[in-house]
Specification:
Elements (H helix, E strand, L loop, with lengths): L4 H10 L6 H13 L3 E4 L6 H12 L3 E5 L6 H4 L1 E3 L1 H10 L8 H8 L5 E3 L1 H6 L6 E5 L6 H13 L1 E4 L3 E4 L5 E6 L7 H5 L2 E4 L5 H11 L5 H15 L9 H13 L10 H8 L3 H8 L3 H20 L3 H4 L2
Parallel strand pairs: 1-8, 1-9, 2-5, 5-8
Antiparallel strand pairs: 3-4, 6-7
Helix pairs in contact: 1-2, 1-3, 10-11, 10-15, 11-12, 11-15
Length: 312
């Protein structure tokens, strides 16, 4: 997809993702070696957005398998459409081959198979990005289902047979670490952990995702994000929530974060009843705004760098 790490970093930045040099090189090596990438870290650190940005940078399709507790092979790979098979038999009864073995073989082809995300990804004529999101929500049995595709780039389905990949997708797996993923899956992957960004990194992110926002406002928002994540909230704000927060301030015509705007801004920052109560305490939000100003100068220095110095 890319001929050099530099092109990966440039493409990600244009797509709105600020990646550090190490992550850029890992992604490039994964594409060259046809290895999946396993990204672990707290919720809201940009793991999913990395896959979305890479797909945009590579100008290819993103196919997403959203994992959840109890997900089945049928939902991930697909299944035969029995209604379509019956319809075929009813409408073609006069012309189909009456030899049972031949007929059964014909009914168990991709023509009668509803494809799930995993099968869709390997059947694409050109490489796509396959995002297997929140893999830590599934059990070890489902993990084992992925090993064939991640090792041999093929999927075996009862009655359908083995379907080999027409092109090898770039696979990004994400985990919030609700449980530890198994070693067989880890062995097949390149591993990277992503944490919440520091002041410099978040300043870079806001700089490329809210280009038209005032620099002072973005710098203060970076400071507020850092302050909130150190405030022991139940759900600290994600990177994307801070981006949306800045856009909301722009719509309100604000050039700075003001304590008196607390009530209208809280829905962007506090997403649990406990966190809302904490920030509604007397001086709670005001003290955070004051702390944010302490980080502002660091963010301003980071934003004053030339883009080519900040990009991975």
């Amino acid at each position: 997809m890319f001929t050099s790490p530099e092109l990966v970093g440039c493409g990600l930045r244009i797509a709105g993702y600020a990646a550090d040099p190490v992550l850029v090189q890992i992604i490039w090596l994964a594409t060259q070696m046809q290895k999946p990438v396993l990204i672990e870290g707290p919720p809201g650190t940009g793991k999913t957005y990395l896959a979305q940005a890479f797909a945009a940078a590579a100008q290819t399709e993103l196919i997403r398998l959203q994992c959840f507790e109890g997900i089945t092979e049928r939902q991930a790979i697909g299944s035969f459409d029995e209604a379509l098979q019956r319809l075929f038999l009813e409408t073609q009864a006069q012309v189909v081959d009456r030899q049972w073995e031949s007929l059964r073989t014909r009914l168990h082809t991709l023509d009668f198979f509803t494809q799930g995300p995993l099968l869709q990804a390997v059947l694409q004529p050109k490489p796509v990005v396959l995002l297997i999101d929140e893999l830590d929500k599934v059990d070890q049995k489902f993990e084992a289902l992925l090993l064939e595709i991640l090792s041999d780039w093929q999927i075996t389905v009862p009655k359908l047979g083995t379907v080999k990949a027409q092109s090898v997708p770039f696979v990004v797996m994400t985990s919030n670490q609700e449980r530890r993923l198994g070693d067989p899956l880890r062995r097949r992957s390149l591993y990277q952990r992503i944490e919440h960004p520091d002041v410099k990194k978040e300043a870079e992110i806001l700089d490329i995702r809210t280009v038209d926002a005032p620099v002072e406002l973005k710098a203060q928002a970076v400071g507020l994000a850092q302050a909130l994540r150190g405030y022991n909230l139940v759900k600290p704000p994600s990177i994307d929530e801070i981006v949306q927060f800045v856009r909301a301030l722009q719509l309100l015509g604000r050039s700075e974060i003001r304590p008196e705007d607390r009530d209208v801004l809280l829905p962007f920052l506090a997403k649990t009843e406990e966190d809302v109560k904490r920030l509604l305490l007397r001086d709670g939000f005001s003290s955070l705004v004051a702390t944010a100003r302490e980080y502002r100068d660091q963010a301003l220095r980071a934003m004053s760098q030339r883009p080519e110095e900040a990009v991975a």
